[in-house]
Structures are given as structure tokens and as C-alpha cells.
Amino acid sequence: MKELAIALDGPGSAGKGTIARGVARTLGYQYVDTGAMYRAVALRALRAGISWDAHAELAELAASLVFEFPFDGDVLRVIVDGEDLTSAIRSDEIGMGASMVSKVPAVRQALLGLQRDLGARGGIVMDGRDIGTVVLPDAALKVYVDADLEVRSLRRYEELLRRGQPASLASVRTALAARDRQDMERSVAPLKAAADAITLDTTEMTVRQAIEAVVKLARARRGA
Ligand code: DC
Q1: Which helix or strand (DSSP H or E) is residue 8 part of?
Q2: How many domains does the chain have?
Q3: Is residue 202, in this structure, part of any structural domain at all?
């Protein structure tokens, strides 16, 4: 049986990561979170005192970083220059930084080859913003995961509360909308559904229903 590459794209907090992880577990695939790679570049820039809109310096930084993405069970760890950054990149500040550095073509270029190598193995669920359009244009299954801004904001707000990082719902909504706009309006590899992607609107779905929907599509494509 041929193992698929599955591309999941969509705006922030639409549920991509949770769905991707659940689908990967169900199918025995590995999950690759490409957003984490951009977050790692943003974090390293912050530490180096490089502004998130200093394109030339970011290009130089991204080209100099040595990335490793080992799997820890089915979870991808992000190691840069030997340091495990998997947890340190999970803040909203770094999320916005990732969105800014991801506009820089040389930063995207530095990560593209690594992403394609991971995808070429098959048996992979990869999520991001340009997986179906640019990274894996031949993926066997492409899903564009979407949900209303209000529902995405609430999900993000509840996640922050759970993590002990309280914020107001209004500020979460404003930040999410700004990041989506930035990701959709950039000139290189903007966030959009691939022409052959299936849109999954998770506004009124439970996580379980969304995972089942993608697994069903994957099984149909795989012929199992
Ligand atoms: O999925 P995430 O929130 O971790 O992604 C952080 C940012 O990284 C996102 O706002 C835009 C950028 N990104 C990208 O440009 N392309 C990807 N394939 C994944 C993420």
C-alpha cells in the first residue's frame, strides 16, 4: 500500500495542528509542523537582535542555521544549531515573528528543501500555509482547514488560558486577524487553498469529527 503525503493548510487556530497530529496517529504517519520552522527562525533572530523585517540580515541568518527535525515518537522536534527549541517557540509573540520572517523569500528558500525532503518520504501529514500550493504540489491529499474568525479566536483564547497565559478575547481576535491578513497578502507563497484542495470548515465540528473526515479522505485516496 502506498503511503501518502497529506497537506493541511489554513489560517491560524483553525485546528490544523490538532487535526494533523490525530490523522498521523490514526494512520501511523508522522506529523511535520512547518510553522515551527518559521518560529525557530523568528526566535533566533530575536535572540540575535535582528529585526523581523530586516530582510538582508534574516536571509543571512536563515542560511547559516543548521536545522534538525528528529521525530520523538510521532512528534517532530525542532533543533537549531544543536539546541532544542521545540517549547521555546510556542508563544504568540514568536507566532507573529514567524509570520513576519516568513515573508522573506530567502528564509522560505532556506526551509523549502528540508520540507520537501520530509514530504518525499510519504507517510507524512504536513501542515502550514503553502504546503498544497508550493511545498508539496503533488501531495495525494490536500485539505484547506478553515473556521470562522470568532470560533478560531475562542479556541486560541481557551488554549492560552489552559497554558496559564491569559489574554482578552478581543486582543486574541485582533492578533489572529492581523496575522492571517499578513500571511494571505504576502507576495511569496501566500496562504490560500490549492486549486485541488478540499476545504474542511471546522467551525461547527469537534476535533474528533474533523480528524475522522480527513482520515476518511486519506483512506479513500490510499485505496484502503
Ligand atoms: O502555524 P503557525 O502558527 O505555527 O505558523 C507561524 C507562522 O509561520 C505563520 O503565521 C506564517 C508562517 N508559515 C508560513 O509562512 N508557511 C508555512 N508553511 C507555515 C507557517
Answers
A1: strand 5-9
A2: 1
A3: yes
The whole-angstrom separation of Cα 22 and Cα 74 is 10
pLDDT digits (tens, 9 = 90+) for 43-91: 999 999 999 999 999 999 999 999 888 888 767 789 999 999 998 998 8
The DSSP result for 97-145, as a single string, is HHHHHTT-HHHHHHHHHHHHHHHHTSSEEEEESSIIIII-TT-SEEEEE
How many Å lie between the centroid of ligand 1 and the Cα of residue 35?
Answer: 4
**Residues 180-207 pLDDT 10s:** 999 999 999 999 999 999 999 999 999 9
- Ligand 1 in contact with 183 (CB < 6 A)? yes
- Could you tell me if the CB of 98 is within 6 A of ligand 1? yes
- In a domain, residue 65? The reply is yes
Question: Cα dihedral sign for 115, 119, 120, 121?
Answer: positive
pLDDT of residue 74: 67
Q: Is residue 224 part of a domain?
A: no
- Please give the residue range of the domain that contains residue 171: 5-219
Answer yes or no: is 77 within a domain: yes
CATH number for the domain that contains residue 155: 3.40.50.300
